[in-house]
Structures are given as structure tokens and as C-alpha cells.
Amino acid sequence: MDRRKAYVLMVLWAVAHLSSPGSGLRALRRTTGGRRGSTGLTGQDANGVPLRRSKRGWMWNQFFLLEEYTGTDMQYVGKLHSDGDRGDGSVRYVLTGEGAGSLFKIDEKSGDIHATKRLDREEKAYYILHAKAINRFTNEALEGQSEFIIKIHDINDNEPRFTKDVYTARVPEMSDIGTSVIQVTATDADDATYGNSARVVYSILEGQPYFSVDPETGLIKTALPGMDREVKENYQVVIQAKDMAGQMGGLSGTTTVSITLSDVNDNPPRFTKTLYEFRVPESVELGGTVGVIRAMDADIGENAEMDYRIIGSDGPGMFDITTNRSTQDGVIVLRKPLDFERKRQYSLRVQVENAHINPRFFSVGPFRDEATVKIVVEDVDEPPVFERASYVMEVKEDAARNTIIGSVSASDPDDKNSLVRYTIDRRTDMDRVFNIHAGNGSVYTLRELDREENAWHNISVLATEFNNPRQISRVPVYIRVLDVNDNAPTFATNYETFVCENAKANQRIQTVSATDPDEPLGGHRFFFGLAQEAAGKANFSVRDNKGNTLSARARGHRINFNLLKSVYHVPVVISDGEFPMQSSTSTLTVRVCTCDREGNMKLCNAEALTARAGLSTGALVAILLCVIILLMIVVLFAALRRQRKKEPLIISKEDVRDNVVSYNDEGGGEEDTQAFDIGTLRNPEAIEESKQRRDIVPETFYPPVRRPVLPPTRDNNGDVRDFINQRLVDNDSDPTAPPYDSLATYAYEGNGSVAESLSSLESVTTEGDQDYNYLSEWGPRFKKLADMYGGDDSDRDS
């Protein structure tokens, strides 16, 4: 069927192009007459002059080739022919350019061009090639190279495709007819310049009657008024795009458009009930929730936001309502305390209204609603209630025990009106100064009071129901202790003064004042006078200054007080003006001192000087202790600085010397630093004969001893043996040697030693070659060493 369709299309194409002037096949014909390049008559011009034209070897136009060829044979494109081709096979046609040899082949002899593959115009719309005719034998070009084009003729083989598989769009609900929603676009890969293969027309397959689509632009619009989101929110619209201008036989493609109606505020809030009833205990705290009411709104989002308010109440200010923004509920809260005994029921009128109103929908109706809320208060067993928030009582400090000073009163606010029992919170009356009558609430004293000790007492009284002891209330009671005149006045301080021995008569010596712990209502008024026993014989007098002070004066004429005594004690009687009158006797101390003519003190006893300077004995002792502590700190600081200056024996761990000093011998001790000269061992030829030792008597007292020369012996260790034997003889015969046994280490191997090394690292390999029998010849000092190394080989092996 496809092949038959292709043949029909080729025939139609051939008929259309062959019938048109300048078609491809006719263009390839060789012009007749004359040789190439000659001229021929073609007519005359306006002046009658014959016109001539030059003959061309090639006449070209475009080749056309149908795309998507489905035949089994190669598709014929056209034929090339040269004027020089006489049909004897001497002309060879050559084709070059795009697709030459791969997509397009030419018959070298006949010039026929065929397409070898199925071509797609959407991949490449045309191909540019070059044709050339050459002599087969001489390879000379018979014609110049010419260019021609093979255009791929389009067929409707591509359906329209939308730019998206699925489109999503939103449009407000209740939109007017013709409101634009979204525009869809489809493209067709066919040639838009040829026929209607790429002309797309849009239509709606699903979605009527709610939406329509513009057939030319693909714009989707609303087609039905009053679409309500609350009725239906989502719509699936299927749009078709068809080429060939929508005609029969055109190819088509579809896409789905998901359209959602967005919400608008077109629905008012509505209460679910006209009457709400809540029951709440009277013990609810202020700010507590009484109840929650809810109005329903079919809208969503901000269009469903509501505001609640109370528009009427029989208990003004008792309640308030707020909006829970997350749930859009109305929350009724308590603003004033509830009391079941006073009011047992409340009625509220509540209104709800949208927070965001769209003026477009005012005609729908008022966007508010109203409801009634009934609140029933439930009785709760409450604790007793005192008549007052606090009590203040007064009692005189001289009140006797068990004196009633006041009373408190509390009652049960509940209907049952239970009896109340009173107690005192002993945590507020630790000394148990007061008590209360359990039945009538009378407060009385248990102990005598002293205002000067505690002028106020703050206690707490507890009221408890007899039937329910857990119901307790508390009230503070402030008890003020009133003053009575029960304290005698005294001097404000211990007065001590001095007087010159030649003081003038009636000279004022000291002005003193008195104090009284009592606090009379009219203030203090003190009276002063000399005690009766000193009134007639005293050398001093007192004068009441009428201002709660007195002045002490010298009595009579000039008197040499120093001739009598140096210290006088003047008794003064002080009394108050209250009832009953209280009095006491205080002493004024007067010291007599030597003064100059101007009255300046010159000489006085130590006590007077101390008093004059204003320093008491305690102050002097404190000053002395401070001085001693400072001295001790200075001495301690100096001792620490002195200790720091001493050089330590070992400054650091890195300064430790590898010295081993032995003190449990009779030798030279620490000063015997030359007893062992290791340098001599390392170089025996450089022995200092004249070097003296500090631990022995100089050699001048002892004649030098000639060292006997031992005959040399020949063995493997002769050099070392000779050296050690010689040193042994020297030490045995030296009278100046230290009188103790010493161990000397000789690190000298000798010149040309066969042993080569005394190190124990190679002893394993050289032990079998060593002969230690000579150690037994060195005397008793080397006996132990000879026993260890001087045995036979068989003994060591065993």
C-alpha cells in the first residue's frame, strides 16, 4: 500500500514538473544545431537587426526528489547529457558534491542519476552537487563543471507536536466568558512553504462546554459563566492540533491541559449552630478558655479568614473572644473571675465576619453571621474567704498574756456554708508569741511583748473548712506593738573629758546628751541634775540646756585640781517627762591636766591624752597589731629573696655529672683526683715522672724506687701483659701508693695487639682462640678472674 502510494505521488510530481517550463528533464537537453560556441539567428530587434545567441553546453534547473521513498529499486533523479557525447562511449560523467557516491550515484556512460537511500526532508532539504563530462580516453574535460541542486520534495509525514506533554493553568472561579486561561503551541516539521503540510489547526476534544480554544492561536478561554470552585475545582481539557489545515487525511497530535479554578471570596462565613452552650466551673483562671465556636466558610486560604467579636453580653467585660488563625476558630476566654453564688449564667451575642471581602461579590449578601452563646457557671467547693485582704492590729507592749488584740473573720462562699476553723501558720510565728481561737478567730498573746525588741509582728492566719480540710485560705495579719514608758534615759555614750588645773569658775567643760529607747507620742523630753550624794561636795555643776542636753561646768573660783586628784567622776541623774517617770544615773568622767595661759593642754596623764586624741585602748592595740603584721611580712619577703639568691647544687637535670665518689675508705677522698690517670694507660710512653699527688707526702721524703724491668715474653697478648705486669710491680713496690685496694680500668689495647679489640660484641667468634691461663700468674688479685676464664676448654664446654 505504501509503495503504491509512493508511485502515485511520483507520477503526480512528474506530470506537474514536466508540464511546467524550465523543468529539470527539459533543461538537461542538449541544444541542437552548430557547434558549441557558434551563434544562431533568434530573430530581429526593433531596428530589424538579426539577433544571435551563443549555444551553451549545459542547461540546468533544479532536480526534485520525493522524500520517504519506499520502493525496492533506486529512485530515479534525472539524466545528465553533454553535446560532446555521440553515444560511442567516449564520454564519462563525473558527479561530486553533497552525498555524491553515497546518497547519489551516476551512470558514467549514460549520465543517469539515482538516489541510493531513503531521504528525509526534515533532516536535509536540498543537496548541492557538481557535474562534469570528461573524455574517457584523454581525461580532458569536454564541458566545464556545472553546479545543480537536488531538492527533496516534502510530503506530509510529520504530525504536529506540542511543546509540552501536559500543561497546567489556573483561572479564578466565577470568571466571565472569554477569560484567557493559557495558550498552547504545536509545531509541524513539514515544509511550511509547500502546501498545507505544516498548517496547524487547534480544536478541543474534551473540556466542553467549560472551555474553548482558538483554532489559529491555540489560546484557551472560559466558555461557561459562573464556574464555582466549591462545586468543581479541577478540569482536564484535551486539545488537538491537526495539520493540512484540519482537512481530512491530515496528521494530528494531542495534549492535556490541567486547569484549576483558583478561589475567590464568594462565600460568606456561616455558624453551624445558632445557639452554643458551654458549662464552665467557677474556678477557671483568668485568661482560661471557656469554649470554642466555629463558623464554616467554603472558601480557602485568606478568603476563609474570619474575625470574631462579642456584640452583646449580660456580663460586660466578663468574656472576650479571639480568632485562632490556624483553625479559624473563635476562642472565648475569661477576663473577670466567675462566682457561682453571684451569677450562674451568662448570655453572649457573637458575630463572625470575613477578614478580606471582595467588593465584586457584595451582591451575594452580607459576609457575616451571628450566633448566641450561653455560658453556665458550675459550682466548685471553694476555700473560705476572709472579709478583708489583710488585717492590722495594735497591742501595748505591757499587755498581759492571753490579751485579745483583735479578730479575723472568714466564711465559706459555697451554698453549704461550712464552718471555718482558724489557725496560725507557725512558720510565720516561730517564737509562738500569738495564738488564735479556732472558732471565732480572736487573736491573743502568749508571751510578754517588748517594742524595743520587735515593733512589728507579721503572721499568717489560715482558715480551713471543717468538712473539707483541703480547702484552705490565708490572710496576712500585721500586729503593731505600741510603746509604753518602761525604759529610763541614759547618756548617749560614755562621756570622758578633761579640765585644766587652773580652770575658771563656771567654765563649761562638756556638753552631753541622752537617749531613750522609748518613743513617746510627743517626743523625748529629758531632765538633768547632779545626783543627791554629789550635789553639795562636787567641784562641778550641771546645767540643763532645755534641749535634751546638759553642760558640765567647774564650780566656784579657780581651783588647783591637780592638788586634789587627777580624775573626777560626776554622777548625773537623767529623767524623762513621761508617765510613769523613768530615771537613771550616768557618770561623767573628768580628768585634770596642766594647761598654759591660753588653756591649751600641756601635760596630762596617759588616759587623758588618749581621750584627747580620741583613740581608745582597743584602737591602739589594733594599730600595734597591724604594725607587727607588716614587719613580719617584710621579714618573710626578705628571707625568700635571700633564699632565691643561693645557687642550687644541681641547676637542671641536664647538668648532672657522671661522678662516683666513695667515702667509706681510708684513701685520699674527693681530693684524690690524680690517683687514676687514664691518660697514662692510653699513652704509657708519656708518663709524667715528676707529677705529684695531693693525697700523699711528696716524693722528696721518699727516694724514688727503680722499677725492675721484666723480661719480655712472646705470646699473642704480650704487649698488654707486659704493660699490666709492669704496672703491677710498680704498685706493689711503691711505698707512696694509697693504702687501699683499688680497681683500675685500663682501656689500652697496646700497639699491634693480636686481639684487635677487647669488646664483648665479638667475643662469641673469638672466644675459642683466646688463652687466659696467664691470669693465674698475676697473683691473688686476679684469682677470681683466672678461675672464671683460665680453665680448660673441656671445662667450659661442660
Q: With helices defined by DSSP (H or I, 4 residues minimum), what is the helix count?
A: 10
Based on CA inertia axes, which overall geometry fits?
A: flat
Q: What is the CATH level 1 assignment of the domain at 490-603?
A: Mainly Beta
Largest sheet: 5 strands, mixed
Radius of gyration: 70 Å
Alpha-beta classification = mainly beta
Description:
Its main location: membrane. With 798 residues, the protein is mainly beta. Among the domains are: 62-153, Immunoglobulin-like, CATH 2.60.40; 161-262, Cadherins (Immunoglobulin-like), CATH 2.60.40; 270-376, Cadherins (Immunoglobulin-like, Sandwich); 385-482, Cadherins (Immunoglobulin-like), CATH 2.60.40; 490-603, Immunoglobulin-like. The protein is 12% helix and 33% strand. It contains ten helices and 44 strands. The strands form 13 sheets. Strands 37, 39, 42, 43 and 44 form a five-stranded mixed beta sheet that branches. β34 (456-465) and β35 form a beta hairpin.
Summarize the structure.
The protein is built from ten helices and 44 strands. With 798 residues, it is mainly beta. Among the domains are: 62-153, Sandwich (Immunoglobulin-like), CATH 2.60.40; 161-262, Cadherins (Immunoglobulin-like); 270-376, Immunoglobulin-like (Sandwich), CATH 2.60.40.60; 385-482, Cadherins (Immunoglobulin-like), CATH 2.60.40; 490-603, Sandwich (Immunoglobulin-like), CATH 2.60.40.60.
